[in-house]
């Protein structure tokens, strides 16, 4: 699918602010893909669709998680986690994207997972550091992303966990598994 067509599809699903975020993720993901040797077209497509389901009704997302036999544990955790796996499902169903690497990058963009592909890492990181993001620590991760994809990713996952802990939010187990897996590989 061409970039313009993909953007047209997601624009209808998003607020203007979220659409601008998506454009930022797209540009950042393509830059990272070029730098770290991932497929630039896949990075572009995954970035465009990564938040496709962000504003879906929570009841609809819950039904999809159950009907599609996704991890039911998701339902015990913050609903903000749901748009990633539901987004992968709807990107295939509604937009006809069937590339499993692209769909997995969408599916795991919020939690990560152990043994992430380069494409998955790039989408997670691009989502975190795109130019529209302004939160403490983001500049450090941007700088790290210029040198070392894995180090930058560890820092982004770590910051996310600490941010959630400070808000007394529960951490989805897959988020911890992602962190442990990345740190283990640095030993
Ligand atoms: O959709 P975005 O805002 O661009 O970013 P995202 O998909 O990476 O994250 C969405 C939200 O999910 C964000 O507020 C942080 C939250 N989140 C990520 N991992 C976890 C989590 N929330 C909980 N409760 N537990 C997690 O493990
Ligand atoms: Fe997201
Ligand atoms: Fe996002
Ligand atoms: Fe530098």
The pLDDT mean sits at 97
Give the CATH level 1 class. Mainly Alpha
Within CATH, the superfamily carries the name Hypothetical protein af1432
The chain-level structural class is mainly alpha
Kindly state the number of beta strands: 0
Helix content: 55-70%
Which second-level CATH architecture applies?
Orthogonal Bundle
Which sheet architecture does the biggest sheet show?
Answer: none
Bin the strand percentage: under 5%
CATH topology: Hypothetical protein af1432
Backbone shape:
globular
Indicate the radius of gyration in whole angstroms.
Answer: 15 Å
Ligand types: 2'-deoxyguanosine-5'-diphosphate, fe (iii) ion
Number of self-contained structural domains: 1
Give the topology string: H per helix, E per strand.
HHHHHHHHHH
Total helical elements = 10
**Alpha carbon gap, first and last residue:** 40 Å
Could you list the spans in which at least 5 consecutive residues all have pLDDT below 50?
none
């Amino acid at each position: 699918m061409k970039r313009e067509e993909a953007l047209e599809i997601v624009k209808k699903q998003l607020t203007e602010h979220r659409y601008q975020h998506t454009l930022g993720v797209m540009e950042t993901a393509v830059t990272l893909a070029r730098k770290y040797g991932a497929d630039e077209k896949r990075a572009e497509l995954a970035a465009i669709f990564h938040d496709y389901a962000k504003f879906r009704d929570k009841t609809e997302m819950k039904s999809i998680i159950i009907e599609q036999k996704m991890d039911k544990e998701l339902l015990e955790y913050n609903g903000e986690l749901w748009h990633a796996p539901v987004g992968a499902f709807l990107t295939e169903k509604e937009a006809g994207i069937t590339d499993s690497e692209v769909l997995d990058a969408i599916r795991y963009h919020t939690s990560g997972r152990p043994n992430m592909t380069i494409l998955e890492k790039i989408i997670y990181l691009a989502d975190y550091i795109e130019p529209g993001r302004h939160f403490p620590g983001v500049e450090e991760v941007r700088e790290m992303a210029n040198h070392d994809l894995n180090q930058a990713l560890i820092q982004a996952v770590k910051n996310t966990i600490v941010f959630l802990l400070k808000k007394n939010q529960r951490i989805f187990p897959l988020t911890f598994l992602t962190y442990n897996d990345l740190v283990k590989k640095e030993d």
